[in-house]
Structure formats: C-alpha cells, structure tokens
C-alpha cells in the first residue's frame, strides 16, 4: 500500500481557501482540546493502543510495587517483634545479674572491712604483748578474745563471699550463653531477612521488566505510516491544489479553458 503524506492530501481548489492548512494546524495544536473526530482518531490509532498498553502495564508495575511495599512492612513488623522479644529476654537476665553484682559488691565490701578490722586487732594484740606491766596478762587476754571474734567474723564473711562469688560466676556463665545465643539468632535472622529482601527486589525487577516488555512489544506494533494514513483518511480536504492563475487578454476576448473562479465569500 502506498504511503500517504500530508503534502498530497490537504489541498483545496479554491485559491483563497486555507482549509487544508487550518486542518493540519488544528491537528497539531489540539493537544489539550478534545474534538470528537480527533478523539476517534486517537482511539483507533496504533500509537493509542501502545499508550493504553503502557498505562496498563505501568499500573501493574505500580501494583507490584505496592505489594512489595506491603511485604517489606510485614518484614519490618516481624523484625520489630523479634527485637522486642530479645529485649524482654535480655532484660530478665540483666535484672538478675544486676542483683548479683550488687550483692557481690556489698559482701566484698563487708569482707574487706572485716579483714581490716581483723588486721587491726592483731596489731593491737602484738602491741599488748609487748607491755611488761602487771595488767599485761589481763589486757592480752582481752585482746586475744577480740582477735578471736574478729577472726571468726572474717572467716565467716570470706566464706559467705566465696559462695556469693561462686553463684555469680555460674550466673555470669549462663548470662554469657544467653547473650551469645541471642547474638547468633540476631545475626541469622538479619542475614535471612536481608537475603529474602534482596530476592524480593530481584523478583520485582524481573516482574517490572516482564511488564515493560509487553509495552515494548506494543510499541513494536506502532506503525507511524498507518497512523498518518488514518489521520489523512479521516481529515483529508482534497488532493488537487488550486488551478494556476492564467493571463487573460481583455481585448482579444479569448478565455482560457481553465480559469480561476473567484469565490463570492472566503471559505475558510
């Protein structure tokens, strides 16, 4: 089929008529106005079909993006729940360890104080033994009694502190095991979640490309000459240009066979 061109189909035999030119100008400048004939042309054109496919597939891409966003929000919610669960479990261990730390510090202080008192009494006893007066034996006995009491107190405190220290060490080991398990779970959860998220993004790219491929296929079916021919057939004004203006000799009385007929009114 022979291609149609604007230059061949927008003429008018009336020399003063600009109907063909006006038709083209109206068509080129009518992007924002709606004309029924132009609307029919757009609906029937191959470019319009491509635009429809583009719009449809773009909507599908947008929908897939919304679905991905919803999935990401769900993953974020799961991660938040996971973080809160770990926080609560860690809080219980921390509270127990804080209590043990305070108990350990208190009894350590008490043990050190009893040690200090015991050492002080021992020094007092040694000083008393050096006194060579009559009351030395009585004073020395009193000092010996005090040293014995302080020694018992120190031994008791050291023993109690040793038990507290042993309990703390056991709980510290348990806490370390709990924290290590939490850290392993956290790393594994984050790694798997990021891996899943990257897979979702990759799948989204594949899905988007498949949808865009439909648009590309539609654009391949867009025939420029077919669209031009459709518009020409819809809005053509004529295929013959105005007849030439011939010289007419008034005195000879001869008339050319094809003279121009001037219109009574301008038909634009």
Automatic annotation (TrEMBL):
SUPFAM superfamilies on file: BAR/IMD domain-like (SSF103657)
Residue span of region Disordered: 126-148
GO annotation, biological process: actin filament polymerization
Gene Ontology cellular component list: actin filament; cytoplasm; plasma membrane
Record keywords: Coiled coil
All residue ranges annotated as the F-BAR domain in the record: 1-227
Protein name (record): F-BAR domain-containing protein
Lineage: Eukaryota, Metazoa, Chordata, Craniata, Vertebrata
């Amino acid at each position: 089929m022979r291609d149609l061109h604007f230059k061949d189909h927008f003429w008018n035999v009336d020399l003063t008529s600009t109907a063909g030119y006006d038709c083209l100008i109206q068509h080129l400048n009518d992007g924002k106005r709606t004309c029924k004939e132009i609307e029919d042309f757009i609906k029937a054109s191959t470019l319009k079909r491509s635009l429809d496919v583009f719009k449809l597939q773009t909507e599908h891409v947008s929908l897939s993006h919304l679905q991905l966003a919803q999935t990401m929000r769900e993953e974020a919610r799961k991660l938040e729940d996971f973080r809160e669960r770990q926080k609560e479990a860690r809080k219980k261990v921390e509270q127990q360890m804080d209590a043990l730390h305070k108990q350990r510090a208190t009894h350590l202080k008490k043990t050190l104080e009893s040690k200090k008192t015991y050492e002080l009494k021992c020094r007092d006893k040694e000083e008393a033994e050096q006194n060579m007066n009559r009351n030395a034996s009585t004073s020395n006995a009193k000092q010996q009694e005090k040293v014995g009491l302080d020694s018992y107190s120190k031994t008791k405190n050291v023993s109690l502190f040793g038990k507290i220290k042993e309990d703390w060490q056991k709980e510290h080991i348990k806490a370390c095991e709990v924290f290590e398990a939490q850290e392993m779970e956290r790393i594994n959860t984050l790694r798997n979640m990021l891996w899943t998220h990257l897979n979702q993004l990759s799948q989204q790219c594949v899905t988007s490309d498949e949808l865009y491929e439909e648009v590309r296929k539609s654009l391949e079916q867009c025939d420029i000459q077919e669209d031009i021919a459709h518009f020409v057939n819809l809005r053509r004004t004529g295929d013959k240009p105005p007849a030439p203006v011939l010289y007419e000799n008034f005195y000879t009385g001869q008339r050319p066979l094809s003279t121009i007929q001037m219109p009574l009114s301008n038909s634009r």
